[in-house]
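Standup, Tuesday
Yesterday: got the pipeline producing structure tokens again.
Today: sanity-check two examples.
Blockers: none.

Example 1:
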Amino acid sequence: MISPARKLAFQILRRVVAQGSRATDLLASSRVEQLSERDRRLAYELVLGVLRWQRLLDHLIAYYSRRQPERLDEPIRIALRLGLYQLRFLERIPAYAAVSEAVALVKQYGPVWGAGLVNAVLRRAASAPDARPWEKIADPIERTSVEWSHPVWLVQKWMRDFGTEEALALLRANNHAPPVAIRLNPLAAPAEEIVRALARDGIEIEPSPYVPGAYRVRSGSLSPRVEAWQRGWIYIQDEASQLIAHIVAPQPGMRILEVCAAPGSKTTHLAALMGNRGMIVAGDRSLWRLRHLARLSERLRVEIAHPIVFEGRGPLPLLPTTTFERVLLDAPCSGTGTLRRHPEIKWRLTQEEIQRMAEQQKALLEEAARWVAPGGWLIYATCSVEREENEDVIGAFLASRCEFRPLVPPVAEPFRTEAGYIRTFPHRHEMDGFFVAVLERKPDAATEGL
């Protein structure tokens, strides 16, 4: 009999490959939440671990089977990845369990002949668990790509952009699970009451060393079954993502426009920092995602968020004379700063896609700039570590928009770059890789709509 965790992990990995689904979305499904705590943790570990180490696992498949992984049927390839990941990385799981359940998965979901192959390959791997065949690869970039399980082109790019030492540190960090970070919701309950509720559920938290009001989970397991979660008292959000709302520096009574706002993490955080006083216009092109934003706002007791549908690169459905003291563009991006939690991105992304995203970001930034009041701030943010999507986008914008000038809020000082922008990195700060630029419209500059 196949354990529920392994069966569900296998099914999720098949959907990630065949349908282009996001692993974390599938892991947040009711099927996963219905598992026991032990099986739920194992399902998470297997899915995200296999995706993080996919290139290394495929190299091992080729080594132990003497076959190219891409020529194997998909169920066989996924079962082998699961088995090898357990043999290589999960010391507490007995080898016989990893082997026998991988064989059982192929018997149920794959071709009949595949079970024998999986059994032979995994037994061979179990008998030589310390083999490091990638060390024989002559090309250093190719060897690094296999050892740290990232595409060759991305390894080359990061070594060129960041230098060898920094790139290697980033590669290593991306293969570790990120810490769980939360924020407490002051709109729902006092902080002391929330901390006590978490403690009752066996969850201990500690303040972030970097971000005001952010906390890391030291022990215990968060899930929708936790009281504080159910009551809307907490929200799971990476520290770098939380930092953005503080960089915006919202004040009660302000008028704020957020472009590309869904699913609402930053919208609801801004509202909490404003004490539900003021107005946030939350725009997104997806009606479905805006509905999620509205539900999240209700759960977190946010009253000042006003969702609107717009395409982002076209005119906003607002009066021409409307302006805002803060305009936040949380731009669609490659997501290379989030590979720890979304590892499938690195197997889908291309250099061409990064360039395409950069052109879209430039257009979105030009549109967002129209709505910034004189003396107001335009905040541009991505969860990408790529220069093309960050410094290059801002540089092109400032070259043609002399009415804007960059500034750095005090809260962002530890993350300031030489160019005066804001960057966070997994290997430096134990948080996602984000880029933020704050641009002030000069007080004497006229807005385009006025």
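Example 2:
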Amino acid sequence: MTGAPAPTDWLPDLTGRNRVKYLALVEAIADAVAAGTLKPGDRLPTHRDLAWRLKVNTSTITQAYREAARRHLVSGEVGRGTYVLADSTEATLFALRDAPEAADDLIDLSTNVPAALPGDDLAADLAALVAESGAAALTAYHPAALLRRSAVAGARWLADRGLPLRPAQVIPCAGAQQGLLAALLALAGPGETVLVEDVTFPGMKALARQLRLKLHPLPMDAEGITAEGLDAACRLTAARVAVLVPVLQNPTAATLGPERREAVAAIVRRHGLTVVEDDVYGAFTDTPPLAALLPEHGVVVTGLAKVGAPGLRFGLIAGAPRLLAPIAAEVHATSWPASPLLLDLACRWLEDGTALALRDRQKAEIAERRRLAERLLGRALPLSPHQWLATRGDPEDAAVTARAAGVEVVPSGLFAVGRERPQAVRLSLTAARSRRALSVALERLAPVLA
């Protein structure tokens, strides 16, 4: 009978990390998993061995492994040891969770999902679609005509965003995350350095691991990345690609102002950089994508998930023809995975104004929830579905305290690209099932963040 694998000889460097030792070790585990130093299935050192090598108490290692397990980084097996899980921490944000009314009365504000609003029901639209087109047509492979129609409808959506493009410059795909994957597969090679904001969305970190990309953090201020920081990073790394969220950046909700946009665009052109722009939240603003200033250097990835239809899995990849060519060549990574049924439904919504109506309803709900949050938290907030809130001390501690109070939020470590972790947590205003649930959650959070 085969025994358990031997523990790794991994020894983390806790220098400069959280002053709370067990949290410093958890951070080190998370970084090692993200970097690939610790791989799924690796067995961590035993509690006693690691405690001796780090010169800490065994209870510190026990507490750290327990917290790492809570974050779905590792799993402990009695008699066999502690193992690195295959599922990333980022992926757990999208795992099915108990409803706020479930045991422990936990209100989950951790996942960026649109608000559930009365009347947002796909059933009637799907039934009408099947009745009109027939189930056979909608479950077959998608015809070329449907892909052309999707590109035309997508071009109209982007034109409403202030980015006028020809349908030939638009590729439909199965959601924005899949579009980002397709773009990076075509534009960046394994081991290549990609520039990102110094705190970036979990999906980007997950893709970097999958594609073996090296992420280099760009410094940010209240508006987002700085032109000076971008210029310095380009000179230092010679990177060819940047993945940015210039409008309602996730997690910070920062938006580049007009002067900053011009300055950043000038640096992009100077260095011949390709910017892959995630614009999934841009529809809630009047600020066009940065790609409007970069007709030869920009690729935009967007979709309908955040405006009210996360299950529709409809996305768009659009931009400069020379950049789209290698992406479009890989149809199995772009339009092929998209469901004909959902493509047809998305086209109808884009054509008849339903998508715009969904966006407007979400935007109105975000405004109401933002007002509620400003009143209960006593601070000014941007008009955004997600909020980046400063903590008094360590964000991991704040998240643990918030959870104990009955609210799930996300500490900055999940978004941090480098070793610096801002003292902040992200929460989603639209994740609460109702304004009443959000009010309860914010009342619980207020003393944690005060």
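Quick observation on example 2: The chain has three domains: 21-87, 91-119+357-449, 143-352. The CA atoms of residues 4 and 253 lie 45 Å apart.
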